[in-house]
Write a structure and sequence with these properties.
heterodimer; A: about 100 residues; mainly alpha; Cytochrome Bc1 Complex, Chain D, domain 2; 5 helices; globular; B: about 375 residues; mainly beta; Methylamine Dehydrogenase, Chain H; Thrombin, subunit H; four-stranded antiparallel sheet; 34 strands
């Protein structure tokens, strides 16, 4: 029983990971544009901050990828940061987190 | 021979200067540190000026002779662009992070509102030398607030709001080096932008942190700030706000003003005689700019992502949506030509600016531009608050 739960979990995990790998190139371009242009509206096109905080790798130091992904998906209550879950999948938010941590935007 | 010489001389003297600037404008290319100088008589692009820094959320005010455009960049850059010669005349990096600016009633001072360090800096419009520094200090621990909604007003005033502090400040610049400041506190949570009516009398800040707006009657400062439209979203779940609405384009038609509701798919109609809500118009997304055609008969509305490919047009008499346009993905800004016969729309994600006829709603021209955002015509030079 325990094994089957573990098996189901690992299956779930691998599907999620696969999903991450399979974000189509065209969608990656859209997400990249979203990150620069729309996130950039508040965080700056160069991620140096604006109404929202700066999001350069040095600013994100000490914050886990999970935390950043959760912030993208569900926002920060009490601030101007909205949750993007209606517009993004978990895998897409994770991909954007990677872009931020690698300073790709 | 003699004729030839005089012809050459005539040609030489007819350089780029020999034209007026009243039909000119500037459009921001937000991702490439550049602007295009355009004209609205033939609807063409005339030149590009580069090297203007980070232009996310850039905006522009004009000198009173309509020759110079002051460009406010995100990185704190203040650039003075000569639109006749299509060149950068002066530029200062005046802060770490800024959001907008204004030019004084007499045209001699340019003010910039800053996020970091929070406050307003005032410059000589001619030289861009610093004239006054107004740190937005608030609270017991003397923190600095981000500043938004900076406008000019009659009486050589600059007015602005403090996002973190929830305050409105009125700075009298009669003695430029020592501004006299009146502070209005507890105006509401997180003012996100503000506007001033075309006659320069009412300053209104929109609130992000709560439903409602803060109104200041500049003819009666002693009466203080009045809260209007309290709880306009009562009982409704607030939707995520994917882009801050803008209040710059104060849409007024008759006694009605049209403003975007924050976190709701609605445009709110305000009766300006009593400042009560006079109606709501359901729209197809979160409105960003709600702008009246100069004659006030129609109001054009653009929207936040994911509905930012669509424009809706409201008839101000019936309050009905009479037209929907799909100019393309990422419609960021609209600018009407001064008498309203045409409107320019920036379509960011498709790298073009579209010009529409406002009667027939037909597309008149397309101008390629890299990630265009704000469009600013020189006629703004003579309008209070713009």
């Amino acid at each position: 029983m325990k094994h089957s739960i573990l098996f189901a979990l690992s299956l779930l995990l691998s599907t999620v990971l696969q999903a991450e790998d399979t974000i189509a190139k065209s969608r990656q371009l859209e997400l990249s544009n979203l990150l620069i242009q729309d996130c950039g509206s508040c965080h700056g096109l160069r991620m140096k901050g604006g109404l929202g905080p700066a999001l350069l790798p040095s600013n994100l130091k000490g914050k886990s990828a999970e935390f950043i992904t959760a912030t993208i998906l569900d926002g920060r209550p009490g601030t101007a940061m909205p949750g993007w879950r209606p517009l993004l999948s978990v895998a897409e938010a994770r991909w954007m987190t990677e872009q931020l941590l690698d300073a790709k935007p | 021979m003699k004729f030839c010489c005089s012809l050459i001389l005539a040609l030489l003297s007819f350089n780029g200067f020999a034209r007026g600037t009243g039909d000119m404008g500037v459009l921001i290319e937000r991702a490439t540190s550049s602007v295009q100088i355009i004209e609205t008589t033939g609807n063409t692009s005339l030149a590009q000026v580069t090297g203007l820094g980070d232009l996310s959320h850039a905006s522009i005010v004009y000198s009173r002779d309509e020759r110079f455009a002051y460009v406010f960049g995100r990185d704190g850059g203040l650039s003075k662009v000569d639109i006749l010669e299509a060149k950068l005349s002066a530029r200062v990096l005046q802060s770490g992070n800024s959001i907008g600016g204004a030019i004084s009633q007499d045209g001699r001072l340019v003010a910039v509102s800053n996020y970091k360090p929070g406050g307003v800096k005032v410059f000589d419009a001619n030289t861009l030398d610093l004239v006054a520094d107004i740190p937005a200090v608030y609270g017991d621990d003397q923190k600095l607030s981000k500043v938004i909604g900076l406008v000019d007003a009659p009486g050589q005033l600059f007015i602005f709001s403090l996002w973190d502090a929830g305050e409105i400040w009125v700075a009298d610049m009669s003695v430029p080096a020592s501004p006299a400041i009146k502070k209005f506190k507890n105006i509401g949570l997180n003012p996100y932008d503000a506007l001033i009516t075309g006659n320069g009398r009412y300053y209104i800040a929109g609130l992000f942190g709560e439903d409602g707006m803060a109104l200041l009657d500049l003819w009666h400062l002693d009466k203080g700030v009045q809260r209007i439209l309290p709880g306009y979203g009562k009982g409704e779940q607030k939707l995520p706000v994917y882009k801050m609405p803008h209040l710059e384009g104060w849409a007024v038609a008759g006694n009605h003003a049209f403003v975007p509701a924050v976190g709701h798919h609605e445009v709110i109609v305000i009766d300006m005689l009593n400042w009560q809500e006079a109606g709501r118009i359901k729209v197809q997304g979160q409105p960003i700019f709600v702008m009246a055609r100069p004659d006030g008969r129609h109001v054009w509305v653009n929207f936040a992502i994911p509905n930012n490919d669509t424009i809706q047009i409201i008839d101000t008499q019936s309050l009905a949506i009479i037209k929907q346009l799909k100019p393309g993905k990422g419609v960021l800004h609209m600018e009407f030509e001064p008498r309203g016969e045409e409107v320019w729309l920036s379509v960011r994600d498709e790298d073009r600016v579209e010009i529409f006829d406002t009667q027939s709603f037909e597309r008149k021209a397309t101008i390629p531009a890299k990630k265009p955002s704000g469009i600013f015509f020189s006629a703004r030079a003579h309008r209070i608050g713009l």
